[in-house]
Amino acid sequence: MDVLSRPAEEFDNDETLEHLWAAKAMEHSDIYFNVLCSVDTRWLRLTQHDDLIYNHFRQDFPDMDVKYINENVLKNNVNKSRWRMFCEKFKNIVEDYSFGTLLRADTNGDYSEQNTILVPRVQFYAIEIARNREGLNNEVKKRCKCASKLTMDSQEHTQEVAV
After folding, report:
1. In this model, does residue 146 exceed pLDDT 50?
2. Using one digit for the tens of pLDDT, what is the confidence trace for 100-144?
3. How far apart are CA 6 and CA 12, in angstroms?
4. d(Cα 117, Cα 73) in Å, to the nearest integer?
5. Which of 126, 83, 127 is nearest to 107 (CA)?
6. DSSP string, the chain
7. CB 83 within 8 A of CB 123
8. With 90 as the cut, is the pLDDT of residue 22 above it?
9. How far apart (Å, rounded) are the C-alpha atoms in residues 153 and 142?
């Protein structure tokens, strides 16, 4: 009997695998956020297929505002169907196209429990490539530099007072 034809109730989620997935997803989000804070994102390439992904994304979702993603709108029945068709276009093009990936809902925030949505990898690519090309992720870089400078200034000030 083919294992895929058996009822889902016969299978349990392996907690170890779930923890490994969560660790990998968090590692990916940390690396990506550090990259956003380091480069001019308008020139950042996430895959060798960025142009194709972006063109299909803007063709299929021409009016989608990617600055803030409302999870309920993103995952409602109508959009869920549209996104499924979009993602399937990349099944044989983008490696791990359907792998669960963490997406920031608001470009003004970092990865946090309140600002993170779980999406398929190619959906993450589509939205983040659009954010990068449309200059929305460069705000992160400005805030990171400001935060770093403020931290350094306060540390220098603290060190001066302590001496």
Report:
1. no
2. 999 999 998 888 889 999 999 999 999 999 999 999 998 887 776
3. 13
4. 12
5. 127
6. --GGGS-GGG----HHHHHHHHHHHHHHHHHHHHHHTTS-GGG--SSTTHHHHHHHHHHHSTT---SB--HHHHTSHHHHHHHHHHHHTTTTTSTTTTSEEEEESBTTS-S-GGGEEEEEHHHHHHHHHHHHHTTTTHHHHHHHHHHHHHHHHHHHHHHHHH-
7. yes
8. no
9. 16
